[in-house]
Request: fold
Amino acid sequence: MMQSTKKILSALDLKPFRFSPPLFLSILLFIIIVIGTLLLKLPISTVHPISWLDALFLSTSASTVTGLSPFETGQTFTFFGQIVLMLLIQVGGIGVMAFAVFFVILLGKKVSIRQRQLMQEALNVPSIGGVIRLVSWILIFSFVIELIGTFFLAFRFVPEFGWGKGLYYGLFHSISGFNQAGFSLFPGSMSQYIGDPIVNLTMIMMITLGGIGFTVLAELLSTHRYHKLSLHAQVMITGTLIINVIGVLAIFIIEYANPHTLGPLSIGNKFWAAFFQGISPRTAGLTTIDPAGLSQASLLLTMLMMFIGAGSTSTSGGIKLTTFMIIIAQVFTFLKGRREVVINKRTVNHQVIVRAVSIISISVIVVLLAVFLLCLSENQPFVVILFEVISAFGTAGESIGATAHLSAFGKIVIMCVMFFGKVGPLTLAFSVTKRSHVDIRYPDGEIYTG
Reply:
């Protein structure tokens, strides 16, 4: 056992390999997916046998904390299979490198510079300084928050299912919510608790804390004054409040009389349903109403929220909220005729803007390519296909009916999009390209745009 542990640690040090950190992180995630596939294919994992492709699809969906599934989780997987899914969600959400470094620390080993570089890449932080302290804090904070979520959910689930099953259901949904996974053990996601304040508030709390980003949470715990926060934290908090309020109000107004969603509900349940649906799709994918019943305007809004996603260094996918906010700021700067992007009296570095534009450009290309391929292979409406692809890219996990009817080729396309959405546009791009620094500068050229 000790010898195998040493081999794993030496592999993590990257000495035998010449992989770049982005490529190595992608390979680690792929290995987790393969292990998950093997475990989910075991006879003890499912109530009835599933194909290798479905096992791979579910493992990818759980490891990338997406939540898309061709069947109901609670009715298809045994207790063992559900535990496998829960572990994949936990490792995929917090990050395999975070757990690897944590075990290195537990074994009393020194964390090398290369391992610190990997963690810097995995957490998307600007420097390796303090990265190990951040990893330890992330793991401890995540476990504590998930236990708190389990505690509150137990008030609803224990009286309904008993102590053992109630606590287990609370833990599963707490982990799924905090890691933005979208998996639920109930038929129809969380629809049977559409008007339950305890379940709604607890799950939204888990989703928000998991989606705002670990670095922002660390800053909030260290200081309670908004003006002392970093620009990233200020943008993230402000952006989260704005987009959540817009999402909730828009869903409430648009769907108020829709007979397929909020229409038949009481005014109190309308509020809770709009509250949940306006926040959850951006990151988590858990629902209390059937997304297939949403109007076209709400579907478009939901797709936009899923594409944006949550915050950097969070457990979710998408282009990230800060990326979206930077592009909006850039547009306003251009319209005002200014040269520099300024947010809260701070100038945004030009390289950050270039990075944001690159992220959105690569993401749009990948989404359009996936939609094109699915339009060729699937006999489903365009809106359904577009919704499925954006949900996979944003690792949101919402579906309006496409997942259960995907062909083998369609499942492979969606799996690739889920992997891309979790790893990140630039990380995956840097994995397959070689970065070079060129000091030569060529003369300016004129290109007409607009």
In short: The radius of gyration is 22 Å.
